[in-house]
Amino acid sequence: MQLQDRIDAFVKLGDFLRQFSNEDIQKDHNIEHNNIFFDGFKHQLKLAKEHNGWFTPENIRFSIKSWSDALTLKNLTTWLKPYNINQLNPRTVAIIMAGNIPLVGFHDFLSVLITGHSVLVKQSSNDKQLLPFLAKYLEYVEPQFKGHIVFTEEKVEHFDAVIATGSNNTARYFEYYFKNKPAIIRNNRNSVAILTGNETENDLKNLSEDIFRYYGLGCRNVSKLFVPHGYDFQAFFEAIYHWHPIMDSAKYANNYDYNKAVYLMSEFDMLENGFFMIKEDKSFASPIATLFYETYHDISQLKEEISAKKDQIQCIVANGFSENEVPFGATQKPKLWDYADDVDSVEFLLAI
């Protein structure tokens, strides 16, 4: 199979997904194999929601729209242009996926197949309804994929390299278990935002998307703010208030009530607005319904501190703070070339 064949197959997958990216799902009769797959994928969306309470229809749609927007001929061609992919010794690459947000492991899946390797996927039990169905669609639009996509619920065996994502504890296990294989091992990371006090209302509204999308469960969600000493959070609370319907989710509301009770019983200082809390804390990983913050006096010193802890940070949301910063509101809309942990997975796959 040639690279262009693989690109064309994923473009067709993007066209298929586009039908499900809006609340009003409309069947497009021009999509290949739609009579076979359209109703089936609607059912898988229903199963994903029923299986995982965090996977609301809105968040699933958001993920699907992100991938349908990414899987265009222009984007795929731009992404792959810097690499020499045709000279490749095909291998079998195992992917051990997380399950915190819908289709969270799709980029690794895409990267392995687009480079010409075979993929062995072990999914999280929290996110196992969607990807196997989409893999079957790929095999229909490009039959040469058949035999190169395998899903397993057992111990992963008979592979040449691995990409594994998990918690800090499981990452240590992965590092030991896969020590004799070429590997990308990912652990816990969080995203931060740097505020100066000069942000517009629109900036702060966009930042709320980085905080609340997927209930804050993704590594690209902002879980920590750095604000200047004496920062007034009034404008921030006003700008994020449109997210208050998030309390309609029982899982989120239960976490809010629990964490608020813990803070109150522990007599921690915190600010809250009825659906969200802000607490001063040096940690990066904040609980659901909570955002940690630290104050700073000197921006240059803050840059040094952030740089020293870069292995704990996925995204830095800011305006004029650093070269690799992400604009307000864009953390959950990464480009194909925005690699997790800043590790180029395509480069890794071409070298094995």
TrEMBL record:
Pfam families named in the record: LuxC
GO molecular function: acyl-CoA dehydrogenase activity
SUPFAM superfamilies: ALDH-like (SSF53720)
A Gene Ontology BP annotation from the UniProt entry: bioluminescence
Keyword list, A-Z: NADP
InterPro entries hit by this protein: Ald_DH/histidinol_DH, CoA_reduct_LuxC
UniProt keyword annotation of NADP present: yes
Coiled coil feature spans: none
Name used for this protein in its record: Acyl-CoA reductase
Species of provenance: Allotamlana fucoidanivorans
